[in-house]
Amino acid sequence: MSIKTELTTIAKKAQEAYRDATAISSDTKNKVLEEMAEAIVVKKDSILKANRKDIAHARARGLSRAFIDRLTLSDKRIKEMSGSLLEIAALVDPVGEVIKAWRRPNGLWIHKVRQPIGVIAIIYESRPNVTSDCVGLCFKSGNSVILRGGSESLQSNLSIFAILRDVLKKHSIPQGLVNMVATADRRAVNTLLKLEDYIDLVMPRGGESLIDYVVKNSRIPVIKHYKGICHVYVDEWADLNMADKVCFNAKVQRPGVCNAMESMLVHKDVAARFLPGMIKKFKEAKVEIRGCKMTQRIAKGIKLATEKDYHSEYLDLILSVKVVDDLHEAIRHINFYGSHHSDSIITENYAHALEFLRRIDSGCVYVNASTRFTDGNQFGMGAEIGISTDKLHARGPMALEELTTYKYMVFGDGQIRT
Amino acid sequence: MSIKTELTTIAKKAQEAYRDATAISSDTKNKVLEEMAEAIVVKKDSILKANRKDIAHARARGLSRAFIDRLTLSDKRIKEMSGSLLEIAALVDPVGEVIKAWRRPNGLWIHKVRQPIGVIAIIYESRPNVTSDCVGLCFKSGNSVILRGGSESLQSNLSIFAILRDVLKKHSIPQGLVNMVATADRRAVNTLLKLEDYIDLVMPRGGESLIDYVVKNSRIPVIKHYKGICHVYVDEWADLNMADKVCFNAKVQRPGVCNAMESMLVHKDVAARFLPGMIKKFKEAKVEIRGCKMTQRIAKGIKLATEKDYHSEYLDLILSVKVVDDLHEAIRHINFYGSHHSDSIITENYAHALEFLRRIDSGCVYVNASTRFTDGNQFGMGAEIGISTDKLHARGPMALEELTTYKYMVFGDGQIRT
């Protein structure tokens, strides 16, 4: 069977499955999720065994330590995967929610009702824990999922997938709800991206080159979880003590994630007071500073920031710093260099706060808080499938609700149009 | 200047313009729209003059009568264009609406606030009235628009565009909010579709080949306004008198539009009672019937429907008819052959009504009403920019609200993540 035939068969069955799944109650879904959570822990030895094969293979190929770290499962990680499934079971089922309903003068009664999107393809890198998270979130929101993980984690993914699918089987739930592309053949992705008759949404989760490839080649709508070049702007009206704490938190608390601060902007009138202490604190925390000329004048021994720095998502203990003339320069800089993910202003000035909130063109815009809060859990939405840097359909943290669309259900009693 | 340079310049300015436009009040927007409505009527002679050039050119090229009809403007059509702008002025401005707001345990106050999408490119065929409708809807919802109309209507479009843009100028509103690609060069579309750094959304409005081209070549998210293969299913529990009226309305009232019925399904137990009278009525209204074998047995002199018929959007006085065994066959048929636009069941059976509403995977699903109601105005949303057959972002009629996205505005007082 060719790859195209194989993937088309999977996608067709996935489409049938989510349509049939409209009959599954929330109670059943939750029970399935709880059993999946249990099965993963009970059968962890088989998962770890498969994972060891992947790791050995990755070592033999000389892949980086960070890569192997992301690939490696442990008792603890498996417990976390299981815990996520339980969390998802505990969330409210979004399907069927009446978003709005109204009656028209002719008596038509229109309901806008939340529905599964349909078939969602998720293309991700070699992080086996993503497998169970995605299955859990898509299953709870009534969608079929087609998983295509990094080929280096294939054995681990297959093992997790088989365990989860067995639970569906036990409950006589259409197997087509949960699918995995089990070939390491890289052409599979390109083939998937052309199945627009069966797949409703593609989400690439991974680095820039993966996302670019998907956007260029997909005929299916894509929601991107792109980079986070997040800023904190310290206004001339900032409480500098608060600015110090928030900037430190935004950069240092977890530098490797997309909502960490990558660039700090400081108003020229407070730069001389604020920067020396702040930079000292950063240096003590092993943060490398790359600053503009003004920053270099204020704090000695700092590398000059280039254009490239302002465009960079370091995901590391590196920070670019720029002194700006005013709020407007800060806003222009953020809208130009940022990635429209999360940006914060520190200010006690009411008008500046509102201006920043209104004009920053990002998914999450903060006043006096760390950018690190951009997260489904922190927002109170429960587990998240990612953080959209797109504007269409969903922006910012994406959880269960964002994995749904709607349809209009219209109740009539013989209305015709005149 | 190359086309690419020219279009990039337009798109960059459009991006700056919508960001600057956050400061324009709803009052100002409405005033501008009212003046646009007036200007179009006052300057109608120049529009009609430009339109005559387009028509002469189209005639010389031997284009079809229907094509020339869509291209032709008249006093009446210009009045309608003007009326649409006034209607849009009267609608509520969606920008800034707080969709939800909540407080987190740490005191963060999160607002989900409606925002313009940004830069919207609209690629449409030679219908000059679309020009002013799109300008009005995009301007009111705070978006910048880049219009690329059919080359055969270029003179008419340029004339309308110049009048509308003059109104912006008079009010010192950024000109970049409203843009037109003024070249007949067909490569312009392909170039536009690659400007994903500046354009947020593309909406193709036109036939299948235009939409296919855009989907295949765009790196920018696309919302499709695709075909409507709409069904009415006459259940065995239908009030046949109601079924007769609704089916006739859905097919005949305006056959050339996307929400007209293209296929009628009838339960086998009522077919012999329902079809003869219904088909007679259709024939009197000059509707050509193409039926399944059972239909042919019940009513004489009917052409056999092919697979292709069930996949067809006729947009004409033609109807495919199929007798089905039960509700489940009807649902399977509609989900398989339909275009997920609008489908209706006629029934007095409660369980069948709910089953149909739940399982039909279409943007608008009706019980006991004509599919012809799928329309922004009929739904009470005001003027529409189209009817989305996609599931992402917007489904069904798209009006002002559907031309927006949201961002999270988060109010803190020094919160950091621990």
Can you summarize this structure?
The structure is a homodimer of 418-residue chains. Chain A has 418 residues and is an alpha/beta fold.
- CATH architecture assignment of the largest domain in chain A: 3-Layer(aba) Sandwich
Total helical segments of chain A: 15
Q: What Rg of chain A do the Cα atoms give? A: 24 Å
pLDDT < 50 stretches of chain A: none
Identify the CATH homologous superfamily of the largest domain in chain A.
Aldehyde Dehydrogenase, Chain A, domain 1
Strand content of chain A: 15-25%
Helix coverage percent of residues of chain A?
A: 40-55%
* Largest interface, C-beta within 8 A: A-B, 66 and 66 residues
Fill in the keyword field for this structure:
homodimer; 418 residues; alpha/beta; Aldehyde Dehydrogenase, Chain A, domain 1; Aldehyde Dehydrogenase, Chain A, domain 2; 7-stranded parallel beta sheet; 4-stranded parallel beta sheet; 15 helices; 16 strands; 43% helix; globular
Description:
Two copies of one chain form a homodimer. Chain A has helices at residues 3-20, 26-42, 44-60, 65-71, 75-90, 129-140, 154-170, 187-192, 208-217, 240-252, 268-284, 293-298, 307-310, 327-337, 350-359, and strands at residues 98-103, 109-116, 119-124, 144-148, 178-180, 201-205, 230-234, 261-267, 288-291, 303-304, 318-324, 342-346, 364-369, 386-388, 396-398, 404-415. Chain A has 418 residues and is α/β, with parallel strands linked by helices. Chain A has two domains: 3-226 and 395-411, Aldehyde Dehydrogenase, Chain A, domain 1 (3-Layer(aba) Sandwich), CATH 3.40.605; 230-373, Aldehyde Dehydrogenase, Chain A, domain 2 (3-Layer(aba) Sandwich), CATH 3.40.309.10. The first copy, chain A, has a seven-stranded parallel sheet with strand order 10-9-11-8-7-12-13. Chain A has a four-stranded parallel sheet with strand order 5-4-3-6, sandwiched between helices. In chain A, strand 1 and strand 2 form a beta hairpin. In chain A, helix 10 crosses helix 11. The longest helix of chain A is centred in the N-terminal third of the chain and has 18 residues, at 3-20. The interface between A and B is large, with 66 and 66 residues. Strand 13 (364-369) of chain A pairs parallel with strand 16 of chain B, so a sheet runs across the interface.
